[in-house]
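Possible regression after last week's pipeline update?

I re-ran a chain I had predicted before the update to compare outputs. Posting the input and the new output here so someone can diff against the archived version. Not blocking, just want to make sure nothing changed silently.
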Amino acid sequence: MSNEQSNHLTPEALLAGIRQTRLVAIVRGADGGAAARAALAAMEEGFRFVEIALTTPDALAAIRQVRAAAPDGCFVGAGTVLTAQDVEHVAEAGGQFMVTPALAESIGASAAAGIPVLAGALTPTEAYEAMTRGATAVKLFPASIGGPGYLKALRDPFPGIPLIAVGGVGLDEATAYWQAGAVAVGLGSPLFGDAGSGGDLAPVRERARGFLALAAEYDRRIAAESLR
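New output (post-update):
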């Protein structure tokens, strides 16, 4: 199977993968090459889904670099995707999923192209609108404004909307969001620090292992509780 075939990502596969791993990595920095190296470091430690923000200089080149070198079963997307032209450029660069910070035209453009999109929303109206436009899941952003309690309140009337908590989510907060019903958490600076701007990758690898261990422990606890 070719790399193109083995790494094709449908909306259904992205959602299933995010539900399974509970983690999405978000790289944003001042150097595209550094962002690519940081993304690959997270993948090498076990992260399967990493987005590179288009606000990063040379982000498209970074996406190309990560797509070419990503371990099997790992996927690279783009963040801060706003326009239909952004979607086109990211797809040409090999990006496999899109992430928006708000209700942007890129949601519909991604959905029309069959590309998974995690759409940014904060309010109930925005979350509902994002799904009607074809979002694969809703990125609750910035989640720190309301915390896990707000996510749970939003989920109560919309149990069918997959919610990903992004913004101010670190190692100490992740479990509470999962418990509140988030299918995953998105990790930016709490995972990467300044690595996207050329900082040391060793702390990134250590923090990545910490988040992966936390998710694995949460899954073990849920499995054990289900057997009681």
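Follow-up from reviewer: compared with the archived run. The beta strands are 23-27, 49-53, 75-79, 98-99, 117-121, 137-140, 163-166, 184-187. Marking as no regression found.
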